[in-house]
Amino acid sequence: MPWLALPFSDTKAKEKLDQLFDVESIPALILLDQKCKTITADGVDLIKAYGAEAYPFSKERLVELRAEEDANRLSQPLNSLFMSADRDFFITSGGRNVLVSELVGKTVRLYFSAHWCPPCKGFTPQLIKFYSDLKNQGRTWRSFLFPVTEMKSPYKNILEACHGLLCLTETEWRKLCHDTLKLKASQP
Question: Carries keyword Repeat (predicted)?
Fold first, then answer.
């Protein structure tokens, strides 16, 4: 690659650039436009995420890429979200396996919750009532509970009340939340 380099001995220039661009860790890739205005200080992350597709690194291009990523993420079929090489099923609250293929094309809900979370504690009973009301009207769909913390009896009660399917190992759950759905949760 035809790199240009600052002489290693020019510590003053290096310090000035570190301060100017707030370089706190390496690798760091700062992208500048023709007028030396910062396009982004997250060049490393952009190249990791998008590769050459990120070029020319304009704000418009980045908005486009993120919109495409969101559209792709939100339109995935169930099997691509939940199946793995080791597993093609979900586990019901009663311990029965349900094949992912049985749910393709059906409406599902994903409920992310934590037993320590006050808003979750307030909403969960409403969700259970909602499910019960729909069931009484003959209108149901499958529920997936994704506990943010380890499985404890409150979650098992929710699964039973909503006929939920507990489907993922903790590793699979974290991958789904963080990598696929881009969810972030704060914990106490």
Answer: yes
